């Protein structure tokens, strides 16, 4: 009996200990807790490279900052750095923008395996100061920022994993024949504000980029449309060049185009069906030398033709027929700084029943001075709140300038990012 009593006592003590353990644990504390959504931002979290577990605090270069909340990122920006610090092997996002870095040597990247984004914009990097193949070994790199540097050439030998490459505001004047080969995953390429001319594009450097969706070639020295752009293209930026002509069937092979920007060129004549594209939403042809309008596709919503030489808006050219079952989607037109003397015909509102705003602004009817139409801004379908606001701001609208409509021009970011 003594042994059984002792066993009973032990059993009771064990049961009490287990009961206390579960009594102290409140399941509601766990399930009522709000999930933490402040996770580190990855450019493409669905394809994030696997990173081995690492102890906290994580390793970080002494010149930089590695916040505990974003353990895969290293911030070295705005620190007047002249060289790239050594990069810990676990880092995925590296931010080195706005420094005085002149070279990209291989040394700091020796043990790096998981880098997905590098931002080296706003530095002083020259092409010959980038070690050969330094980026090529970064097998997980998807985004590379090199804009606002002093590059003379396209950076050669890049990893095939790359998806977004930003090279704007450099001094690139040539693209070697194979510089864009081996980049099957590129979706966005920014080459704005460089020294590219037609000779650079004769080799059709973009034709094999089968996944390219956005191409920025603004602020260069192009005189003709870039040849053989890939079928996948959706956003094309060609502002501030010297292009004077668009071949009539040029866009037949680019049916996916959503936004086309060609302001500040030398366009004079547009063939009637040039922009008959099924998915086009934004078309910017402002500040050219156009004398008449052209066919407007059903999908188009925003049209910018300010700063041209148009004397009358021929609505029948824009809309040859009306289909009540397939109405056109145009909502905004900007026509200021042309040579209009009368407003657009009311027939336009039958062709384009969704028009909400027409900005007439000042017109360049006389060489010596600009004039304005009786109606500077036409707006329709205003809500009661918008109507009262417009009435309150009537005096302000009487002094609207081109800058006042800059926000509307930026329907899509100039770099479509």
TrEMBL record:
One Pfam family hit: LRR_8
Q: Where is the LRRNT domain?
A: 59-93
Write out the GO biological process terms: cell adhesion
Provide GO CC annotations from the record.
extracellular space
SUPFAM superfamilies tied to this protein: L domain-like
Q: Which PANTHER family match?
A: AGAP008170-PA, OSTEOMODULIN
Subunit comment = Binds the alpha(V)beta(3)-integrin.
Full protein name: Osteomodulin
Q: Which organism is it from?
A: Herpetotheres cachinnans
């Amino acid at each position: 009996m003594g042994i059984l009593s002792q066993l009973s006592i032990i059993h009771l003590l064990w049961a009490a200990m287990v009961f206390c353990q579960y009594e102290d644990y409140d399941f509601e504390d766990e399930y009522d807790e709000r999930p933490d959504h402040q996770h580190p931002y990855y450019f493409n979290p669905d394809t994030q490279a696997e990173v081995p577990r690492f102890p906290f605090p994580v390793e970080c270069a002494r010149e930089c900052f590695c916040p505990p909340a974003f353990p895969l990122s290293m911030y070295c920006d705005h620190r007047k750095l002249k060289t790239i610090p050594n990069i810990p092997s676990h880092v995925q996002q590296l931010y080195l923008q706005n420094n005085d870095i002149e070279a990209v040597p291989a040394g700091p990247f020796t043990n790096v395996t998981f880098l997905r984004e590098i931002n080296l914009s706003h530095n002083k990097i020259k092409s010959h100061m980038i070690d050969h193949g330094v980026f090529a070994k970064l097998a997980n790199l998807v985004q590379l920022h090199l804009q606002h540097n002093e590059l003379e050439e396209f950076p050669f030998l890049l990893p095939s994993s790359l998806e977004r490459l930003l090279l704007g505001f450099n001094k690139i004047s040539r693209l070697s024949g194979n510089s864009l080969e081996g980049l099957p995953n590129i979706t966005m390429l920014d080459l704005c504000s460089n020294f590219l001319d037609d000779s650079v594009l004769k080799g059709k450097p973009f034709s094999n980029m089968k996944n390219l969706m956005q191409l920025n070639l603004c602020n260069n020295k192009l005189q003709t449309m870039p040849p053989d752009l890939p079928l996948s293209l959706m956003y094309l930026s060609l502002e501030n060049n010297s292009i004077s002509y668009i071949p009539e069937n040029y866009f037949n092979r680019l049916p996916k185009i959503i936004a086309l920007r060609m302001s500040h060129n030398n366009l004079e004549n547009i063939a009637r069906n040039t922009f008959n594209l099924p998915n086009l939403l934004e078309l910017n042809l402002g500040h050219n030398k156009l004398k008449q309008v052209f066919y407007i596709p059903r999908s188009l919503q925003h049209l910018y033709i300010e700063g041209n030489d148009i004397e009358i808006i021929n609505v029948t050219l824009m809309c040859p027929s009306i289909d009540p079952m397939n109405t056109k989607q145009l909502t905004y037109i900007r026509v200021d700084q042309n040579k209009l003397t009368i407003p657009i015909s009311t027939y336009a509102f039958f062709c384009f029943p969704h028009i909400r705003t027409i900005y007439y602004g000042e017109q360049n009817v006389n060489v010596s001075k600009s004039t304005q139409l009786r109606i500077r801004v036409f707006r329709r379908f205003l809500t009661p709140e918008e109507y009262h606001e417009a009435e309150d701001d009537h005096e302000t609208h009487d002094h609207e300038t081109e800058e006042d409509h800059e926000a509307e021009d930026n329907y899509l970011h100039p770099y479509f990012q």
